[in-house]
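Let's study my pick:
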Amino acid sequence: YKYPYRDPYLATATTAILNDNGLTPRVKSQIVHVPVLPDRNQLPSLEGRGELSVALYRQNHPAPLLFILPGVGSNPYFGLATYLARLFYQEGSHIVILPSPMSWNFALSSSRSGAPGYAPADARDLYEAMQKSLSVLRDRYNVKITGINFMGVSLGALEGAYLSVIDAEERKIGIGKYLLVNPPLDLDYALKKIDEWHALRNKFGSEKSKEIVAKAVGIVESFSEDRRDDPAVFDRLAKDFASFTTEDLQFLIAEDLQILLPELVYVTQVIHDQKVLTAAKDQVRTRLQEAKGLTFMDYNEKIGLPLWRIQEGEPQADLERFIKRGSLAPILDRLRGNSKVHIMHNADDFLVDKKSIEELKEALGDQVTLYPYGGHLGNIWFQENKE
């Protein structure tokens, strides 16, 4: 395996420039608004924003449709998902990029609990949202669909695994193939790592933290005109990022993953005011600023857990129980032998402990392609992986 980067953090950093810029020909997408939960469109400060927003890349002829579900910190309009959309559009598919369930748009438009983050419930909400999206595409946009496939990356891959179980039972969509890339296997492990790296801000101090982020943004912006299908571009990028320490890169990865968390917190507190934010409801900016103080574990404990208990009818269940039940292990037996499901993973993905990856490969055999290097999604642009 000729992937060039052995440092998993450096490998992961190379995804920072992945989008559909610098690629020719440019592929145009359009935003499609899908009504999912009718009571969410009139909430104060969010009036008229309660529809699911997806990015559609359409072929001008009948074609299979690929749903792409990105991970935490992603959205349908820029970044990794748009890079993948272009790759599969060129192979002849219609593409629909869904927002991550851990985004404010999904929480508002499609999450019945109003607090996404528990994968089995997110997958049920996602299944409903995908059916309604397909109806809108066929009826309102006259998109001719010959088959349906699904690709999930990172947390989107975990949710895709749960989706495969639902569709196998209910067959309301009939998804032909699932490609699940770098799913977190134990969510508790992954979230604690992200929170630990986010806390490096305290060690660095405010000024140094800002300098690290500004330097990284400057590096990424300097590649805005470069082609994303030239390996030499990634070599230059890796050399630039090699000037950061491992702790710097860990901090940057955590910052990137948490970038959309404050908006999610804000929206959950418009749907259910749990008194997590103390600023007055009409002080939108102050509440958003306050939301920046919460980590993923804070979100799960203070916002998610009380609402998941109600939704699942388990008033006594603790957070550990929900996180364990929302990881991949409980459905491994349901994935085994389902020839529609294929997982790509990296042995050096730092959001997964090595033992879990080995157990996954052992449990699912040929359904898992395991690469020795690549960190977390860091080899998704590499030619062998693309093929």
Observations:
- The beta strands are 30-34, 52-57, 63-69, 94-97, 145-153, 178-181, 341-346, 368-371.
- Residues 119-139 form the longest helix (21 residues).
- The chain has a mean pLDDT of 94.
